[in-house]
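Could you join me in thinking about how sequence relates to backbone shape in a protein? We need material for that, and I hope you will provide a protein of your own picking. Label the sequence line and the structure token line clearly, so we can match residues to local backbone shapes. Would you write everything just below, so we can both look at the same thing?
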Amino acid sequence: MSVLVCGGAGYIGSHMVRRLQAAGFEPVVLDNLSTGHRQAVAGCELVVGDLLDTIGLEQLFAEHKFESVLHFCAKSLVGESMHEPYAYYHNNVAGTLNLLAVMRSHGTGRLIFSSTAAVYGMPVSETIDENHPCEPINPYGRSKLMVEQILRDAARAHGLRSVCLRYFNAAGASDDAWIGEAHEPETHLIPNVLRATEKGAAPLSVFGNDYPTRDGTCVRDYVHVDDLADAHLAALGYLESNAGAHVFNLGNGDGFSVLEVLESAREVTGRDIPYVVAPRREGDPTTLVASSAKAREHLGWTPSRTSMQQIIGSAWRWHQAKRF
């Protein structure tokens, strides 16, 4: 089946492309390469384009018969979204509306949407399920929640079938170390921990050590990127027999503190990881851990790479390979 992967040259999208190819799909990647990497989708049809270019979208859909679309395109830096909200709503919301309009005009009726735990805002429980209140505290999270609402309306009005997958902390790299997490600037903990092992690197900043947790640092749920890809493939199958708009959390179900991540990285790399304690960041919740029971029940999805050593080990192999 022909599948369009928007943002397929990015971190999670490129892992998804490989998973689709292994499952017998024929993915076509649309990416503006602002944060994606051409090397990550070598051997796959890559169309350099943008969801904000409606003429280009029309041409792409006219040239292919897509049965489904996987949508990973987004601006996704929380701090940046606070300073540039218009850019986030324009890219994340208006771009998605462009995509949905072209999908409808060409009869493509299935969409898997990359959402985020940021739609929940500040947690009111230690474990978050899909019934947790959605009160995002930044434009990034609000832009994702707006799209989720649009997809519910599209299901009622036009019969669009969709699944929104709310990721917690994506991490790790492919088993063969060919693709991994390569952002500039890098804001995620694990790649920054690995960068701190390099000779001459600045110490890692640990933002706050006075939280009410087991070691005073924030606790987060990390899910391996290949487990995320498996969930997307399961969601495609789910839409074969389930109409409407659906939402699932994707997380490991266990929380790891910042210092626990550092200790696991020391074990994996055999290197010291210098760090300094910095002030808390505004808006950082103490604990964010997912309940993925709904995905397990309805998608048949269970993460298989759940230990921090597994996750960091795969990221470390990619980090050492330095492919791009």
About this structure: The mean pLDDT is 94. Residues 2-171+222-250 form a domain with the Rossmann fold fold (CATH 3.40.50.720).
